Amino acid sequence: MPSAERLQQLAQTLRTTPEWLLGGDGPDTVSSPGDDLPGQPSLPDFRRFPKNLPIYGTALGADLDVISSDGATHAVEQTDLFLSEPRDYMARPTALAARDEYYVVEVAGHSMEPRFDSGRRVLVSSKKRARVNDDIIVQLRAPIDNTEEVAAVLIKQLVKEKAGAIVMRQFNPALEFEVPRDRIKHVHTIVPWDDVLSI
Fold first, then answer.
1. Is 38 helix (H, G, I), strand (E, B) or coil?
2. Helix (H) or strand (E) segment spanning residue 74
3. If phi over 0 gives left and psi between -120 and 50 gives alpha, with beta otherwise, what is residue 25?
4. Given the DSSP bridges, would you call strands 64-68 and 174-180 parallel, antiparallel or unpaired?
5. Does domain 53-197 bear CATH number 2.10.109.10?
6. Hey, which residues does 149 pair with through a beta bridge?
């Protein structure tokens, strides 16, 4: 996520507002001195960016019991993720055009602070392979009527992958732990906003 200063600079360059870049309400374009002067280079009309990047809602769920690196059992923050229907949509950056593997999740809870505050929107790729130290969304299996459905996720940082488990960390409180692979349906990668807004 860009800093407030960087976001303001991006908004000025794109002739829009920080609120609009973050998918909020407000004007999608702003005028600047010299807009109507002849010979000025034209910029894209950002009102034409499709507002079709899905935002999925979250809520804090029941804690998940995990085994830490020292062998002790801990309860870590688990997030309910509502994938059945997006709760909203935001403008899709040009770099993500025609790439439907991306979606946005609102962080719930405080376990990843100060990296991600509660309520912050993060961009997620369902196809980009996670590497060590990447932030990830871990979709947990939940058997329902003999089928599998994602009922909850962990929003953490990848430490390493093992034969039978994935090791991850959180920051508040600081903790490294592992989750068996048979409890995991998918691991999706959180992509920094700077990676797509600066292209």
1. coil
2. strand 73-76
3. beta
4. antiparallel
5. yes
6. 142
Convert the pLDDT of each residue in 82-140 to its tens digit: 888 898 998 888 888 888 899 999 998 999 998 999 989 999 999 999 999 999 999 98
Enter the DSSP assignment of 26. S
Q: How far apart are the first and last CA of the chain?
A: 14
Please tell me the distance from the alpha carbon of residue 43 to that of residue 143, in angstroms, as a whole number: 51
Cα 13 from chain centroid?
24
Helix (H/G/I), strand (E/B), else coil: 154: strand
Query: Which regions of 79-173 does DSSP assign to beta strands (E)?
Result: 79-81, 88-90, 102-106, 121-125, 135-144, 147-161, 165-171
110 with 172: CB under 8 angstroms? yes
Tokens found for residue 59: 């809520």
User: How many residues does this entry show for the chain?
Assistant: 199
What distances in angstroms separate CA 194 from CA 54, 149, 170, one per listed residue?
19, 32, 22
Average pLDDT, the chain: 82
